[in-house]
Amino acid sequence: MQDRLEAMPLDALMAEATALRDAAHGRVVSYSRKVFIPLTKLCRDVCHYCTFAEVPRPGRAAYLSPEEVLAIARAGAAQGCTEALFTLGDKPELRWPQAREALAALGHPTTLSYLAATCGLVLKETGLLPHANPGVMTRDEIAALREVTASQGIMLESVSARLCAPGGVHHGSPDKHPEARLEVLRLAGELRVPFTTGILIGIGETRAERIAALRAIAALQDRYGHIQEVIIQNFRAKPRTRLGAAAPEPDLDELLWTIAAARLVLGAEMNIQAPPNLSPGVYQRLVGAGLNDWGGVSPVTPDHVNPEAPWPHLEELAARTAEAGKVLVQRLPAYPAYVRAPAAWFAPAVATAIRRASDAEGLARGDDWSPGELTLPPLPAPRLAAAEAGLARLVARATEGARLGPPEIMRLFAARDADAAHVTAAADALRAAVSGEVVRYVVNRNINYTNICSYRCRFCAFSKGTTHAALRGPAYDLDHAEIVRRAEEAWARGATEVCLQGGIHPDYTGETYAGICRAIRAALPGMHIHAFSPLEVTQGAATLGLSLRDYLTRLKEAGLGTLPGTAAEILDDEIRAIICPDKVNTAEWLEVARTAHGLGLRTTATIMFGHVEGPLNWARHLLALRDLQAETGGFTEFVPLPFVHMEAPMYLRGQARRGPTFREALLMHGVARLVLHPHIINIQTSWVKMGPEGASLALRAGANDLGGTLMNESISRAAGTQHGQEFPPAAMEALIRGIGRVPQQRTTLYGAPPEAQATRAYAAAELTPVVQTAPRRKVPV
After folding, report:
1. Cβ proximity of 37 and 86 under 8 Å
2. Whose CA is closest to 647, among 579, 580, 710, 717?
3. Nearest to 297 by CA among 322, 325, 329
4. Residues 6+ apart with CB under 8 A from 360
């Protein structure tokens, strides 16, 4: 390979490198928003190009104090940073008595011990994710730092032993011996630590030695899979160094050649970085050489290693990146491949912080919004002029009704900037073509008949105790009188539907559910009963020893009109095993829906997203629904339900993300419109989760339905949403007209409601207080 790389013209080399990069990373170029914490500038090494290391000076503390560390970290957190980069000299206590004395005063035997303590302090107190660059470490030191860091790093710099000989830039620096640094990289691989490394060019090495270093890194990556990024850093001459300010620097072509060579040696998937502050004004050339990351950029602190080279302003970096045809996205200190597998790569406390800071792809969330919150994030305008051609072709195929495969759907979910705008605009245009300008809604009431449940769904705040009893209230089990009273009150307020769902009470049988239907039907023959998810149906049938078909027939005879498509969560058993292991599996859920459709009982379809799953699981879910709808035609609508995290047990235990980002929530509506076309016409948005303003944006991203007015929504409220329990018709219609669309009341089955009911809905009285019947033991009938 060396001969080939040397022989290729630079333009050809760069073209091959960028094609390889684009195949794995697409249009994204990432960066980490960081704060730089120089824990100590003392060092036992004497690298001839370094201005970071200092000697002890009277009146200057050898180490930052814990209070100083926290002050820097908090300033970074206030500016939206997610990374706390700890940079420090290598084992200064082995050279400087002042370092030993300072460590003793701090209560630590070594610099690495103090580093671990301050990393843990920053993680606990600020939520920033530490990345540590402390130099050469032992196995135990790496393991100790793994407990409190998201990633670690050591620059290999070079594998040239010549540079450690007299006259070389590493002479007198025992920690720069290649064998010592390669051993750190090897130990980190054994310990499964996401690790950063790189090479420094222009310090006396040859091109052949650079390739040798890159090959050594590639071999370690092939063995352990832990090298998350490789930095190609160009030497910059500085005064106050042994090399001096007049030392020759590598030119731009040499830097471009090395970046491109690194891409070809390390492969498409590797993250290759070049610091932007060391090459100002040539960002497009660097992107054109095959990099996909700018490294850490701080809006708060200077680059203490290269203080003469200020960080670019993030707005400028985004603009220059866009000029190169790429989208600048924020990442965490650990890269997405590791973030998406937190249990494998991080200590438990770090994994919790990682989950809470990441989006579904493993990048930084990008906004502070979570479903159920009142304030939407700002929506930046696209910087790129147009969508990528391949993505545009995928969208065109979807609008023509083609069935996309999982990788293609994942590509739609990964859309950002102009690509995301293209997806949602195309979805909205498709909505207009198949559904017109009418936005429909149904006047209904939710009746949750019990919050007692024998299942242990890890996302559910409704049927478990939570830290906010005011949201959930005490356990209850409604009697027929209260259920009928609520239904009658809903009818008097203009409702045409009651939606009945609850926990799986251990004393309930299939007859319990049928009895609820009969009680409502006897009192209100005109009320549509929309009730019982596939979980209740499966449980009810099992208690009576009936087939699904026979039991659903019994429910239909008792008055059941349609079924809600809840309990779907994610129709992928890989995820169900994590979030609801004792619930119906994917095949069982689909079979209930298939059987119901065969009996003329239509159902809705839902997805609950933004917790532990990712775009592949979303794709599988959508395709399962599309395929069943192509078979039966029984789904009335598809309802994306963003995960509300605040009171969810798995979030409180550190096992889930904070729901989808707002970008992901909008894309779910748009991608669903495209993927489910032409089989599912109605895409509903949840005002309870998205909020009214968010719902209005979803209606412009592919959705055409606002769902129900709800009256007494309680499941999302229990999870922590701040939106109200009812959205009355006047408010629904004001929202719809506000986006230039036409409101229309509907029934559950998308018909016109009785005129008298529609009229009542506009003049509804206040709801009377509900009565939560105390639990009682059911007597099976």
Report:
1. yes
2. 717
3. 329
4. 413, 609, 610, 613, 614, 615, 618, 657, 660, 661, 664
Q: How many CB atoms lie within 10 A of CB 479?
A: 15
Strand partners, 529: 498, 560
Report d(CA 346, CA 759) in Å as an integer.
58
Q: Rounded distance, CA 760 to CA 758, Å?
A: 6
Query: For residue 320, what is the enclosing H or E element?
Result: helix 314-323
How many whole angstroms separate alpha carbon 770 and alpha carbon 603?
28
Report mean pLDDT in 10-residue bins for the chain, 781 residues: 90 98 98 97 94 92 98 96 97 97 98 98 98 98 98 97 95 96 98 98 96 98 98 92 89 98 98 94 96 94 78 91 97 98 97 98 94 91 97 98 98 98 98 98 96 89 49 81 97 97 95 98 98 97 98 98 97 97 96 98 98 98 98 98 94 96 98 98 96 97 97 62 80 97 98 96 91 70 37
614 Cβ partners below 8 Å, 6+ apart?
340, 360, 361
3-state SS class at 619: helix
Q: What is the pTM of this model?
A: 0.94
467 exposure class (CB count in 10 Å sphere: 0-12, 13-18, 19+)? exposed
Max CA distance (Å), the chain: 97
Alpha-helical regions (H) of 332-479 = 336-339, 342-345, 348-357, 389-399, 406-413, 418-435, 469-472
Q: Per residue, what are the HEC states of 115-175?
A: HHHHHHHHHHHHCCEEEEECCCCCHHHHHHHHCCCCEEECCCECCCHHHHCCCCCCCCCHH
Length of the chain: 781
Three-state DSSP state, 780: coil
